[in-house]
Amino acid sequence: MSELQLQGNGLTGNIPAELGSLSNLEELWLNNNLLSGNIPTELGSLSKLNRLYLHNNLLSGNIPAELGSLSNLIDLYLNVNQLAGNIPTELGSLSNLNSLQLNTNQLTSNIPTELGSLSNLKEIYLYGNQLTGNIPSELGSLSILEELILFKNQLSGYIPSELGSLSNLQYLWLHNNQLTLLDAIPVEVETLCAPSNINCRFD
Q1: Is 122 helix (H, G, I), strand (E, B) or coil?
Q2: Mind listing the domains of the chain with CATH numbers?
């Protein structure tokens, strides 16, 4: 079995830890259900997994650090749940990741600087959490990033000038945070946002 698609079936209860033994699984679709409880750490054993879709459920607890072992992962969608705690630094090992969607949870602590090493990332959705601290300057290394969506958190400090290097960016949404904005948006970022095809929000 290479795919397990059970999305939108009204499933309840916990995600079975036994799924971690499906060693040939490449895609796991459990989104749009009513699943609750923790994400099993055993899913970190699915070494061939390309896509993990657990969004739009009622999952709680922490994001397992073991997910950082999924070296073939392209899409990681954990958004619209009730996940808490920090974003594991181990996710910085997901070198093939294109899309990281952790938005609309209850995540706290800082955005890990390790995410700046995910050179294949095109989308980062972290909005609608309770993230604190600075926006890591390391995110300016994500050369093919198209969407950086961090609004509605508790991020503070200055906008890193390094974000001005994101030449493929189409959306930069940093609003509804506690960022220092008055006369403080770096000229590199202002220049990046000047073309009409770039959608930037800081307010």
Answers
A1: coil
A2: 3-201 (3.80.10.10)
Asked whether 158 and 134 are in contact (CB, 8 A), the reply is yes
Q: Are 48 and 24 in contact (CB under 8 A)?
A: yes
Instruction: Kindly give the residue spans of alpha helices, DSSP state H, lying in 16-118.
Output: none
- How many CB atoms neighbour CB 9 within 10 A? 11
- How far is residue 76 from each of residues 114, 158, 198, measured CA to CA in Å? 16, 28, 25
Q: Going along 58-146, which residue ranges are E strands? A: 58-61, 75-77, 82-85, 99-101, 106-107, 123-125, 132-133
Place of tokens 């508790």: 154
- pLDDT tens for 112-164 read 999 999 999 999 999 999 999 999 999 999 999 999 999 999 999 999 999 99
